[in-house]
Amino acid sequence: MFKKIKEALGLDPIQNKLKTYTEMVKQINELEPSFEALSNDELSAKTDEFRERLSSGETLDDILPEAFATVREASKRTLGQRHYDVQLIGGIALHDRNIAEMKTGEGKTLVATLPVYLNALAGKGVHVITVNDYLARRDARWMAPIYNLLGMSIGVLQMAARTDNGRKAFVVDTTVTSPHEDQDKLRLVMRKEAYDADITYGTNSEFGFDYLRDNMTMSLDERVQRGHPYVIIDEVDNVLIDEARTPLIISGPASDDVSIYATMAKVVRQLAPEEYEISEKDRNVYLNDNGLDHVEELLGMTLRDPSRPEEVSIRQEQMMGYLNQALLAEFLYHRNKEYLVQAGKVVIIDSFTGRLMPGRRWSNGLHQAIEAKEGVKVEPENVTYATITLQNYYRMYQKIAGMTGTALTEKEEFYKIYLLDVIPIPTNLEYTAQQKNSGLIEQNAKDEEGYKYTYYADPASPQVPKYYKRKDYPDVIFQSEEAKFRAITVEILKNHVLGRPQLIGTASVEHSEFLADRLKPEPLRRLVQLHMLRRAWMNKNNIDYLESPIKEFIPFNKPIQELTAGELRPIAKLLELSLNLDDVDNRELLAQEFNLPDDQIDRFIQITESGITPQVLNARKHDEEGMIIARAGAFGAVTIATNMAGRGVDIKLGGELNEELIRDTNRVLSRMNIDPYNMTLEERYQAIRSIPPEEYGIYEDSIAAYIDFIEQMELVRQLGGLHVIGSERHESRRIDNQLRGRAARQGDPGSSRFFLSLQDEIVRLFGGQQMEGMLKRVNLIDENVPLENNLFSRMIEQSQERVEGANFDVRKHTLEYDDVLNTQRKRIYDQRDQAFVKEDLSDDVYDMLETDLENRLDKDLEQEHWKLASYLDSIQPAIEMETFFIPNFSQSLLVSALKEDLGNEPEKQELIDCLDELSREAFRAENEAGLDQYANLIANSKESYEAQLQERLSNFELFESSLADRIKEQHEAIEEGRVVSPLKPQELISEAGNIARVGFRLSNEQQRQLTEGNPAVLEILRGQIESALYDVYTRRIVQLIANRFGSDFTAPSKATEVGAWESFESLVMDAVQESYRLQAERFFGNQGQIVSDLEITLKQYKQEPISDNQWSQLLRTIGQGQRVSFDAKTHRKVNKAYTRINFVYYVGKLLQDLSREELRAKIWDHFQQTLEGLREIFGEIDWARLRSFNVPLEQLKPETQEVMSELIGADQFEANKNLPPAEIDSVIVDQLKPFLGWRIQNEVFRSVILRSITSQWVDYLTQIEGLRVSISMESYAQRNPLVVYKTRAAEMFSQLLNDIRRSVVERIFITQPQISMLTAAERMSLTELRQLEDSIRSEEPVPEQEVAELNEPEESSQEPAEQQQRKGKSEKQVPADADAVPGKSRRKKKKMKR
């Protein structure tokens, strides 16, 4: 009522839009004659004209009428199709950011060409989304002639399997021919080229995944998309609603341990039905106590403590997670319904669309559980690298529009989430009929069965239908699913006898194949025989209509496939009939039962005996669905398909009409001065028949095929057109409407009917009991008799509305959570974009270093200062690159202290004495710290031991309680005279051991006493728990200390009492003190190793300046020694390096004397000097490579030449740019090196920042998903879980930013430049650079030392163990790369100028 009032007052915004669009259509129509007068060249030139006008300030809206007129004219000349007025309205609606709801067959593909061309004129690209790869190819090729005439290029995206794992795509190229449909007129190109085209077709997954991949690349050049200006989505409801339930995820394996899934699959298969409960409504499976007990028995482990169910260990929680997923996989997820198994892989079927979703995987281990259930290879669980919901992906577009035949039922969701209005576009027939003097009137009538229908007729012959509206018959409802499928089979058979094409929609692959099996000869014949016998029984008993079941026929209600001829013969004999359908009496019964005229009985029997072979379209034929569904309108076609199969493809009566045939027909008519563009197919047929055949010329074959098609189409029209059968109602009205909408396109006759049963899922879950009650009230008992009642249909629709509302709430709820992540995703991706495009990243890196330093000072100054020194050395180890060296922080500090004490040219003995004293101080500092560390180790171990002991004793109490109950039960049984099995000692010991995690040992007598519950024996077991745990902890401590000291440590020989931690600590600390004493004697005694090693190193020392590198070598001589060990493989003695003195503790003592500001200044100065040193190194290396590769400056990029010209002056640059780099004056080279060094360092910064953001973001996605799952499982009393999620997510995101900064700091000093970062890479390919780099490394001579060479001690290794460990850590963080340059050299290092 309110809607009519709004329309009357002119307040309906949708109607106002349609009025505006209609006025614009008039403008376009007025332009048509002038555009028809243009030549092809003049028409093509319009594109350049429009672009020029746009650049001059006009808008797309300004040029819309002319642009649409251009496309219409191009379509007429290339495709032979003229855009109707309603198609122009649809195109305007799409340009105006709306959803155009257009019925099937109204030419949505052609409609899209209008706004696509208009918006492509802006030069930013237009994306056209299709529901599958086939339609992307088909539509791109089909519309290509229009775009090609107008100078537009077309790209086509296809799934990864066809395009080198998504690295490539296609462009439409009409010169390419191939016998394979998926390659014809398509040229394979790099993916970026497809996106650089004016128009790009593809599925939503391909566009979304490319967006995610673009934000995972490490180079701006690797990105393929160029923004998100405008998108048109075909079948928009399918994409933005149905498929939007599943986010796009790029993931990779997280672990390889998948055996537990197979174990759980075996376990759940052994459960009995009474041990679990399936709730289809909640989509869950619940184990009762018996079931859980059975699972625990099968697994051999406990999954919960019945007395304290809230307390579960991490392992138990994990096992329960595996169990829950195995239960879901076994009982709720069915093969050929929710998924298929293809080529050894589980492939998801979308529950709404019925399409395969290759590459998608269920989360939280469900997919692995299903793989284990099916016995295929179980892929490891994945970690998410990138993810986005389709809602948030499409909301990134500046302008979004869509087309579909069914959107009104979801208009609220479209507007709330995407701000899209749904504009219902009338069909061309309705629009034409509404116009004055259209020559059509709308009429209502009833068919022979009494059903109302609507048709359009000529006013002169109002009783003769010219066009039709679809007949939607009332739903028919049965009590059982078997009765429903029998009725569907009969419906198919009756229509197939007539030759009428039929499309049967099912809800799953399983039902499609189930229904197809019922059309085979044997079950079809059995069903007809049963109907025949029942009709004979009714005739014999004078019954016209069944109201109660026939007792004799009740056994035949089982599935028809299980019914045999032998079971029917007794009733046939009773009725004095044979089962031969062709008998005279039987032919009369068949005619009566199936309402057959005499001329159809023979065909009926023939089809029944031979069966019906339908075309089954389901997810297995995903790639072929468009081609199969197009043939569904042919004479006699029977097509069984999931409800959504073949969307985007029209079903034309008579079969598929090749567009080439229409084009050739139009050419012949145009040549005869007949305008074909405003004609219907029938009018074209009449016109072409009026032309003498000799005038057909080269188009003779095409005209013959066109005439044959029209005659076939007319035959099918006379039979009633396409009949759509729905085998069950979907939970969404929209999906049902889409199935109905396949019939009666463009005024063709057609009909639809849905068959339901009380066992259907939607009826059972959302209305079954109400319906069953109503059926009983109307006394409908026989399950084979249907009921047609609009009340039932309304009840179903109410159920659908409730489900639709619930589904919308779920999608909205999911989006609300994802909006939190989406905001964070934008910030992270913006940071990546900034890292890509910012010219100088130095300030960003220095800011991160400064922030990290401040945080570290705040944290570490409250603890021991040596931890700060250790951290600084870990993030910036000593850097050795080719002939250059930069010390770490500790080395730098110690070298400065040594220089301050000795100067830079000390005497030899003075140098040895000073280094000896330094080593003694460092050793004492390490001893003091070590003693504290070992004391803390023992204290922490004691605390952990006590907690573990308490837990195990508590668990043991459960065993004691259980044992007491079993002994009591045994005594009661004996008293009652019942026979019971005695308790077995070994089983009791094993059970107790599993609970307490201890291997118990008892004598035979003690085992016997255990079966009696003897308290003394139980106390012995408790004592064994305590002693075993104490032994584990103390041995672990001793082993840790022994590993540190090696042969210098002797473990205490005296044993301590269990739990005597004070005595144990005293003995261990005495042993540690003794170890330190032995080390001191070896290092500093009369034959001390350190002084001896120094004297060997300085054997040829002359009093002259010592470089930083040489000072560091001396420190290395002190810090690292060698010990003799035995190699088990070679059975020989070998020398192994070990750290004998760790300077970090002594450095920590030096730092204690500094104030916070002094300490900060010293560290900051070291960072700056290190980065400046790296920059200088990079400049030297880069210039050396330019020389080695002989790359003149003139061959570098223009922007690089411009900077160099500014640095050395334009005249100097011109004079030197053609010279080989080796011939350029050294003064000029010294001016260029700082720029080269800065340039490479900036690229290193860029790489580090990008890698840090990417790696930390991947970890964060795992954490945020865990948060989401945990919040959904927790209770928050009066707090909104979404609010809690937002709060925690904000905290986690803040920590993520800190983690990114810390990751950058940890990598910035240790990341080496890649070959691609060299300036020479501007001229040479990476392959050439790698080959030349390898040759340089293999042939380059060892340079001479600038200072006196220091001899290495014969028994010393070159590098302290602590630095080896740090390098190991660095190598783990930054994997070795073949492109890393320069590599570490084994040559002696020279001093790096500081």
Short key terms for the protein model shown above:
49 helices; nine-stranded mixed β-sheet; 10% strand; disordered C terminus; alpha/beta; flat; 1394 residues; eight-stranded mixed β-sheet
Total strands: the figure is: 31
Strand order of the largest sheet: 5-4-3-6-2-7-15-1-16
The proportion of strand residues reads 5-15%
Q: Note poorly predicted spans.
A: 305-311, 1338-1379, 1381-1394
- Main β sheet profile: 9 strands, mixed
**What do the pLDDT scores average to?**
84
* End-to-end gap: 86 Å
Please estimate the helix content. Answer: 55-70%
Radius of gyration: 42 Å
Report the principal-axis shape.
flat
Please identify the oligomeric state: single chain
Q: Class by helix and strand content?
A: alpha/beta
Discrete helix count: 49
How do the helices and strands line up, and which of them pair or pack?
Layout (H helix, E strand, L loop, with lengths): L1 H8 L3 H24 L3 H16 L4 H19 L6 H11 L2 E4 L6 H13 L5 E5 L2 H17 L4 E3 L11 E5 L13 E5 H6 L2 E5 H11 L15 E5 L1 H7 L5 E6 L5 H11 L6 E4 L4 E4 L1 H11 L14 H18 L7 E4 L2 E5 L6 E2 L8 H9 L7 E7 L1 H5 L4 E6 L6 H8 L2 E4 L3 H7 L6 E6 L5 E6 L7 E4 L2 E2 L3 E3 L2 H18 L3 E5 L2 H10 L2 H20 L24 H10 L9 H11 L3 H13 L4 E3 L7 H6 L7 E5 L16 H13 L9 H9 L10 H19 L3 E5 L6 H8 L9 E8 L3 H6 L1 H10 L9 E2 L1 H48 L4 H19 L4 H11 L3 E3 L2 E3 L2 H14 L5 H69 L8 H12 L7 H8 L3 H31 L15 H24 L4 H9 L10 H12 E8 L4 E8 L4 H9 L3 H34 L8 H11 L1 H7 L9 H48 L7 H28 L17 H14 L21 H13 L21
Parallel strand pairs: 1-15, 1-16, 2-6, 2-7, 3-6, 7-15, 20-26, 21-26, 22-24, 22-25, 23-24, 25-26
Antiparallel strand pairs: 3-4, 4-5, 8-14, 9-10, 11-12, 12-13, 17-18, 18-19, 21-27, 28-29, 30-31
Helix pairs in contact: 2-4, 2-5, 3-4, 4-6, 4-7, 5-6, 6-7, 11-13, 11-14, 13-14, 18-23, 20-21, 20-22, 20-23, 25-27, 26-27, 31-46, 31-47, 32-43, 32-47, 33-42, 35-36, 35-38, 35-39, 35-40, 35-42, 36-37, 38-39, 43-46, 44-45, 44-46, 46-47
